[in-house]
Design a protein that fits this description.
Blueprint: H1 3-17, H2 38-46, H3 50-55, E1 59-71, E2 93-103, E3 111-121, E4 147-160, E5 163-171, H4 191-196, E6 200-209, E7 214-221, E8 236-244, E9 249-259, E10 268-279, E11 284-295, E12 305-317, E13 322-332, E14 343-353, E15 366-376, E16 388-399
Antiparallel strand pairs: 1-2, 1-16, 2-3, 3-4, 4-5, 5-6, 6-7, 7-8, 8-9, 9-10, 10-11, 11-12, 12-13, 13-14, 14-15, 15-16
Helix pairs in contact: 1-2
């Protein structure tokens, strides 16, 4: 049997063997997850390839996420306005079945690594990059509801002196929330995540960890959600400065700028994203995420457009089993450039429940119930008949 076939069989055996998960991680870099959980690697070892992978510094893992949302307003057709992945009410959803394989690099010396990450599920409809939509549709509502997506595929090269170069397809640097649900405090997503910023890029980045407190990232990409194809002939500029100011406060400033309209190389779309995170105590933490975006000739009336908003997050860890999560948000899309076309507010309160936090094989099982209230200046909810929307919902995540 070839090495490629052995790897494929090993992954399949690992999935069958993975009846449990390990703790949910909160990576500093959304593209760099926690070390692989023992359940998957044990499955790979039983197939005879786990130990060689470990010796080569290669890790693998994944997660499964399923959810349900109930709308008290009986949304028309089950559609939930203003939502991203949880776009339907009264509809059990398989959000993501994700797998990743990676080798991280040591940027202090010459080293070569990679990451490949793919998903299958309802969320795949919304994050396809241009050229990687295997279903050929322009609408995220196009069937099938569950779709495949190649979320990330890149190579890392360690140069030395804390510098590495990344080339390929990767998740965006912007935003407090990510496609990977393990990095998010709540089940539902913010307006900022869904409307203000991109999901993925394809290009080249230089990532320089200057010291233990400051990391600078910069490079060029093909644009928002562009991959093997591009809507125009221009590149985007993408960058970030992350500064750990002290043991409690971290400030991250990111930006992206470039033409995004089809066959248009002159009208630039630019977004500035700022995140401040503060760990008040071992149990209590806060984060604030603000975005400002501008794009020429992108308004609904043909003029220039801007959008902006701010979201505040709080987390209180009661114990190893329970954490209370909250989010308050305001978002403006006055020119209709981002598809919302109104001013919206939302408040969300949720729990993170890990029923077996200390068990070896089921510690990563997590439930995230929540209640959410949305209000908009215009009647965008319940089929355009209501200014407000109240939902209860939640998801279950199994990490392996």
């Amino acid at each position: 049997m070839s090495r490629r076939n052995r790897i494929g069989v090993g992954l399949g055996c690992a999935l069958l063997a993975a009846t449990a998960a390990v703790p949910i991680y909160a990576a500093d870099d959304a593209a760099q997850p926690a070390p692989p959980p023992p359940s998957l690697m044990s499955g790979l070892e039983s197939a005879g390839i786990g130990k060689p992978m470990e010796n080569a510094g290669i890790n693998a893992g994944g997660w499964v996420e399923a959810s349900y949302t109930y709308d008290f307003g009986n949304a028309a057709g089950g559609a939930l306005a203003g939502r991203v992945f949880d776009d339907k009410a009264q509809d059990p959803t398989l959000n993501q079945v994700a797998l990743w394989v990676e080798k991280t690099v040591d940027a202090k010396k010459f080293d070569i690594g990679f990451r490949i990450e793919g998903m299958y599920g309802s969320d795949g409809r919304f994050v396809h990059a241009n050229g990687l939509d295997f279903y050929g549709g322009d609408s995220p509502q196009q069937y099938p509801e569950n779709q495949l997506d190649l979320t990330q595929a890149y190579v890392d090269i360690g140069i030395g002196g804390g510098l590495k170069v990344r080339a390929g397809k990767f998740v965006t640097l912007l935003g407090e929330e990510t496609i990977n649900p393990n990095n998010d405090p709540l089940y539902s997503h913010s307006y900022l995540f869904g409307f203000a910023i991109p999901f993925t890029h394809t290009g080249v980045l230089g990532i320089w960890q200057i010291n233990d407190n400051v990391t600078v990232t910069g490079g060029v990409t093909r644009g928002w959600e562009q991959s093997t194809k591009d809507d125009n002939d221009m590149i985007d500029f993408l960058g970030q400065v992350a500064w750990k100011m002290n043991d409690k406060l971290t400030l991250t400033v990111s930006g992206v700028s470039g033409p995004e309209q089809t066959d248009n190389n002159s009208d630039y779309r630019s977004v500035l994203d700022v995140i401040a995170s503060y760990a008040a105590t071992e149990k209590l933490s806060f984060a604030v995420n603000g975005d400002y975006g501008y794009e020429s000739d992108a308004a609904a009336d043909g003029g220039d457009a801007s959008w902006y908003g701010i979201a505040g997050y709080t987390t209180y860890k009661v114990n190893d089993m329970f954490a209370v999560q909250g989010r308050l948000e305001w978002f403006e899309d006055p020119d209709g450039a981002r598809g919302l076309g109104t001013t919206a507010w939302e408040g969300t309160l949720g729990l993170n429940i890990k029923p077996f936090p200390n068990a070896k094989y089921v510690s990563g099982l997590m439930f995230r119930p929540e209640v959410r209230y949305d209000y908009a200046n215009d009647a965008i909810f319940d089929g355009g008949s209501d200014h407000s929307q109240i939902t209860v919902g939640g998801d279950v995540i199994l990490t392996f």
